[in-house]
Write a structure and sequence with these properties.
The chain is of the alpha/beta class. It has helices at about 1-15, 20-25, 75-90, 110-125, 145-160, 180-195, 215-225, 250-260, 315-325, 330-335, 335-350, 355-380, 385-405, 415, and strands spanning about 30-40, 45-55, 65-70, 95-105, 135-140, 205-210, 230-235, 240, 270, 280-285, 305, 325-330. Strand 1 (about 30-40) and strand 2 (about 45-55) form a beta hairpin. Helix 1 runs parallel beside helix 3 (about 75-90). The longest helix has 26 residues, at about 355-380. It starts with a helix and ends with a helix. It binds nicotinamide-adenine-dinucleotide. Nicotinamide-adenine-dinucleotide binds next to helix 7 and strand 7. The site of nicotinamide-adenine-dinucleotide has 24 residues, from helix 7 and strand 7.
């Protein structure tokens, strides 16, 4: 996965004519940490996991990025996702660098007590390298507000009351109103901006969504509330489709009772992979990386792919979609709503002042629409696709901050600073 992120980075670096040395400086993580997490199962057996935190860049502020609990979590994933966080926070111009981490565990096979022990042991092992002004974790795949609350609690045992050490906390425990749905809401704004070009709205399009967790389910609900027709949805259990439009509130109720989309009575059951190539105007991958590959990109029927997940499109697939005139709204723009409201949460924690939901959503909307416009303009003026343009914008912002902060301006190329 790191290879793909670096390849996309290098396309922007080519455009900016960056030297090999500068590329190495910008791509190399500042710190890579791996810890061994040894805990006890409920049955009294030894549980062994590896935890990771990769801290990519601090030029624009303290580092920020999610924690993923998934069997596939490893250093390569953490490094790739950490790098994406540096560029993402720069695209939306919030004052952070990038980090990412997680644990190579499968939460579906762990009891809550086991998950709690694993999480708090992880915090004990990485507590010296995280903190409200150093590195602020947040939820990602298979982590949620409850786990963020455990992290805050464990960290606060060592350092005193520290709500700003993590974001995505429950609203009852210093979380921000609007954080849980923020990534999905941001995806919706990005899609609205794309449709605006042809004076269309969400009510004019059909949408297929892969992944129905935090991001996918909120994106589906918000798009459907504005008249969008959600025609296909998948999760780990399989896919469902209904060309007349899936009743999203009914599906959410179904999931509340049955956990997975499979079996939902208001739609046909289809293969999970079919959702990616389903006949819909919009495709939203909102699960894991490498969903759209050279194997299925030719069959994608959507006119636009909104990358709600991180790294869902491989470079080969990106090029196939580009050749087929399918627009890709890249992850570092499309899913930046989550980290944006995490920034609001962190600011609220530091000020100990809660914002109203209306203010959170207004500020998020402003940042997402402005960021889309910035990227789209740069793409248009330079004949670039949206992904390369987003990377160019981000690299320039990091370059300008480095020049100002480290007095490095005389060593950096003009292309980075104009
Ligand atoms: P989540 O754990 O809440 O949900 C993941 C969903 O993907 C689940 O519905 C799961 O069943 C589904 N899934 C997993 N494997 C699948 C497969 N092979 N086919 C179809 N569905 C599959 O995770 P999330 O927080 O919604 O994150 C989803 C993606 O969005 C990730 O790439 C994550 O990095 C990215 N993201 C999340 C946030 C956030 O705020 N949570 C912010 C930015 C980006």
């Amino acid at each position: 996965m790191l290879e793909a992120t670096n390849l996309f980075f290098n396309r922007a670096a080519d455009h900016l004519e960056l030297s090999d040395k500068l590329r190495t400086v910008l791509q190399t993580p500042r710190r890579v940490v791996r810890v061994e997490i040894v805990t006890e199962s409920d049955e009294g057996e030894i549980l062994h996991h590896l935890g990771y935190r990769v801290q990519h860049n601090t030029i624009r502020g303290p580092m920020k990025g999610g924690l993923r609990f998934h069997p596939s979590m490893d250093e390569d994933h953490a490094a790739s996702l950490a790098s994406l966080m540096t560029w993402k926070t720069a695209v939306v111009d919030i004052p952070y660098g990038g980090a990412k981490g997680g644990i190579n565990c499968d939460p579906s096979k762990l009891s809550k007590a086991e998950l709690h022990r694993i999480t708090t042991t992880f915090v004990e092992l990485i507590r010296e390298i995280i903190g409200p002004t150093i590195d602020i974790p947040a939820p990602d795949v298979n982590t949620n507000g409850e786990i963020m609350a455990w992290i805050m609690d464990e960290y606060s045992k060592y350092y005193g009351f520290s709500p700003a050490v993590v974001t995505g906390k429950p609203v009852d425990l210093f979380g921000s109103l609007g954080r849980e749905e923020a990534t999905g809401r941001g995806v919706m704004y990005a899609l609205e901006e794309y449709l605006k070009q042809d004076e269309r709205t969400l009510a004019d399009v059909s949408v297929a969504i892969q992944g129905f967790g935090n991001v996918g389910s909120h994106a589906a609900r918000l798009i459907a509330e504005r008249g969008g027709r959600i025609v296909a949805v998948s999760d780990i259990s399989g896919g469902i489709a209904n060309d007349k439009g899936i009743d999203v509130p009914a599906l959410l109720t179904w999931i509340g009772e049955n956990q997975v989309v499979q079996g939902f009575p208001g739609a046909d059951q289809i293969d999970g992979a079919e959702v990616l190539t389903y006949k819909a105007d919009v495709l939203i991958p909102a699960a894991l990386e490498d969903a759209i590959t050279a194997d299925n990109a030719e069959q994608v029927q959507a006119e636009v792919v909104v990358e709600a997940a991180n790294g869902p499109t491989t470079p080969d697939a990106h090029d196939i979609l580009h050749r087929r005139d399918i627009t890709v709204i890249p992850d570092i723009l499309a899913n930046a709503g989550g980290v944006t409201v995490s920034y609001f949460e962190w600011s609220q924690n530091i000020q100990q002042f809660r914002w109203e939901l209306e203010r959170v959503n207004q500020e998020l909307e402003r940042i997402m629409r402005r960021s889309y416009a910035d990227v789209a303009l740069l793409a248009k003026n330079n004949g670039l696709d949206l992904r390369t343009a987003a990377f160019v914008l981000a690299i320039k912002r990091v370059g300008k901050a480095a020049a100002a902060r480290k007095s490095l301006g005389h060593l950096l190329p003009k292309s980075l600073l104009d």
